[in-house]
Automatic annotation (TrEMBL):
CoA binds at residues 16-19, 43, 95-97. The lineage of its organism: Archaea, Methanobacteriati, Methanobacteriota, Methanomada group, Methanobacteria. Gene3D superfamilies: NAD(P)-binding Rossmann-like Domain, Succinyl-CoA synthetase domains. Its EC number is 6.2.1.5. This is Succinate--CoA ligase [ADP-forming] subunit alpha. The gene is sucD.
Length: 286
């Protein structure tokens, strides 16, 4: 497992909003005991199920020892919420999508200054079967195991995790780094964590067109990673100049094509598959 463990103590920012309330309920149903409180400015003193609701993280910390946050705050206010978390906590999972790129740049830079780990923005979150999830992924497709998954795509994460589970295996941790052009963690950060994690034996990396995150990961893998890595790159047939799905999934000229990413990964010794359905079979072989 990586990032989430029994020592994680999380607050939900935006717990009383439509998305925050729905997904907090789902996280708690899954048995995510590491969620201890929620915040919603102006609604301090209320309850959300068994959770106490506070006006701010500062108020929470006066009563509860927390070190992590998951953010469901709407995009116009997400930067303020992220700054509040970064200034006081070790981990912030930013589920919010459509955050302006300039805001995301400021969030990531502020996190570096404060040594805070950022997952996202625009991420399905993170799940460690047996510990819990901080995110929006459907829990029934995950199973405890030794395969680490890192992805830019939420839905492909679910597809691959489901196939691995149906094949009789399981996941150590699944993490979505986020589909925006600017995110807190990149593939290399997560792959190194999996490399150092005693519970992870095989890594699955799910990429897509746009940007150079996969090429940078390939270079990193060649120099630093010993465990087997299986990769799938989405968007092989995507036309140049057309954004596909995520804000970061756009090809510009020769940069960010599926072909360039696949070539780089193969040169780094990664098992690259042409269809997500092949991943579980290769994991079994490994």
């Amino acid at each position: 497992m990586i990032i989430l463990d029994e020592s994680t103590r999380c607050v939900v920012q935006g717990v009383t909003g439509k998305q925050g309330s729905f997904h907090t309920e789902q996280m708690l149903k899954y048995g995510t005991d590491i969620i201890l409180a929620g915040t919603s400015p102006g609604k301090g003193g209320q309850k959300f199920g068994e959770l106490d609701v506070y006006n701010s993280i500062e108020e929470v910390k006066e009563e509860i020892d927390i070190n992590a946050s998951i953010i469901f705050v709407p995009a116009p206010f997400a930067k303020d919420a992220a700054f509040e978390a970064i200034s006081q906590l070790d981990l912030a999972v930013i589920i919010t999508e459509h955050i302006p790129v300039h805001d995301s740049m400021e969030i990531v830079e502020y996190a570096k200054q404060n040594n805070t780990t950022i997952i996202g923005p625009n991420t399905p979150g993170i799940i460690t079967p047996g510990i819990g999830k901080l995110g929006i992924m459907p829990t029934h497709i995950f199973n405890e195991g030794n395969i680490g998954i890192v992805s830019r795509s939420g839905t492909l994460t679910y597809e691959v995790a489901s196939q691995i589970t149906n094949a009789g295996m399981g996941q150590s941790t699944c993490l979505g780094i986020g589909g925006d052009p600017v995110v807190g963690m990149d593939f290399s950060d997560v792959l190194q964590m999996f490399e150092d994690d005693k519970d992870t034996d095989v890594m699955v990396m799910i990429g897509e067109i746009g940007g150079n995150a996969e090429e940078k990961a390939a270079e990193f893998i060649a120099q630093n990673i010993q465990k087997p890595v299986i990769a799938y790159i989405a968007g092989v047939t995507a036309p140049e100049g057309k954004r596909m799905g995520h804000a970061g999934a756009i090809i510009e000229g020769e940069s960010g094509t599926a072909a360039s990413k696949i070539k780089a990964l193969k040169n780094a010794g990664v098992h690259v598959v042409t269809r997500p359905s092949e991943i579980a079979e290769i994991v079994k072989q490994l």
